[in-house]
Amino acid sequence: MARLARAELFALNEVAIVHVINRTVRRCLLLGNDPLTGKNYDHR
């Protein structure tokens, strides 16, 4: 069975609380400020 499009899962006029988990390779920082390099990754 095919998955539904995200637009069909959440109504735009309703509030939704979701739990999101992302994993990266080599513990790379996905969002925010990297304390080691000082780079900001909020654009991702």
> What percent strand?
under 5%
SSE string, helix = H, strand = E? Answer: H
- Average per-residue pLDDT, rounded, comes to 77
Helix share, percent: under 10%
Number of strands: 0
Give me the Rg, rounded: 16 Å
**If helices are DSSP runs of H or I spanning 4 or more residues, what is the number of helices?**
1
Query: What is the terminal separation in angstroms?
Result: 30 Å
From the spread of the alpha carbons, the general shape counts as elongated
Unreliable spans: none
What structural category characterises the helix and strand content?
Answer: little secondary structure
- Describe the biggest sheet? none
Structure description:
The chain is elongated, with a radius of gyration of 16 Å. It has a domain at 19-44. It is largely without helices or strands and 44 residues long. The mean pLDDT is 77. Helix content is 9%, strand content 0%. It has one helix at 6-9.
Draw up the topology in text.
Blueprint lengths: L5 H4 L35
Structure described in brief:
The chain is mostly loops. It has one helix spanning 6-9.
Task: Label this structure with key terms.
single chain, 1 helix, little secondary structure, 44 residues, elongated
